[in-house]
Amino acid sequence: MERFWDVMAAAEERYAPVRAEIRRRLAHAKEEARREREELERRWAAREAQRRERERVWLARSGRCHALASRAIWGWVLVGEDGTTALVHRHDVVPAQPLPTPSRRSSNPLSAYALARELEELGQGEGLVSVRWETAARERVVSECSTPADPVRFGQWWTEVAGGRWRSPGEVPPPSSSSPGPADGRGHSGSDYGGAGGDFGGGHSGGGFSGGFGGGF
Predict the structure, then answer these.
(1) Structure pTM?
(2) Residue 177 — very low, low, confident or very high, per pLDDT cuts 50/70/90?
(3) Contact indicator for 145, 101 with CB cutoff of 8 Å
(4) Phi-psi sector, 174: left (phi>0), alpha (psi -120 to 50), beta
(5) For residue 100, what pLDDT is reported?
(6) How far apart are CA 170 and CA 131, in angstroms?
(7) Which of 58, 75, 90, 215 shows its CA 20 to 30 Å from the CA of 170?
(8) 3-class DSSP state for residue 83?
């Protein structure tokens, strides 16, 4: 029996380094798994923080844009002989250049939502195709909707508040197949100012934002 225990002790002694190596490798694997888990958790937390920050920025921007859009400060005038261009201006902003003598103008100050509807009605019923935006009005929009950390381009503001049919601030959406024609009597509030394509006297462009809004103008 003593011989047996001697053999077992010798075997135990020979096997001790193997057991130690196994324990070392198991501990190493456990530590690696812990580090990988912590790294995954760190990356997930960072992505979640970025998502929440993007959402915060987007909500703040949307709030600024729609707060401006809800104010009844806009007007339009038709310019040119054919009446296919409208120049849009703000009643609360002195224009960079005197507004031209219009053939027609909007009868009352409009919110941006009402402005978009009236311009679309002019396009559907009376052939308006393009919009020009008075320079000082455009620049004021950019300054009011932007922050140092989140500059907003004018086209981003208009796309956000005017709806998906507007591809750019300077192009009136084409009449839809269900839109009534000129003969159906569908009207608008009357108008005198209008605009197309570019600015009236120039343009302004702010910075960009990677998500949430449409392209610039």
Answers:
(1) 0.67
(2) low
(3) no
(4) beta
(5) 87
(6) 5
(7) 58
(8) coil
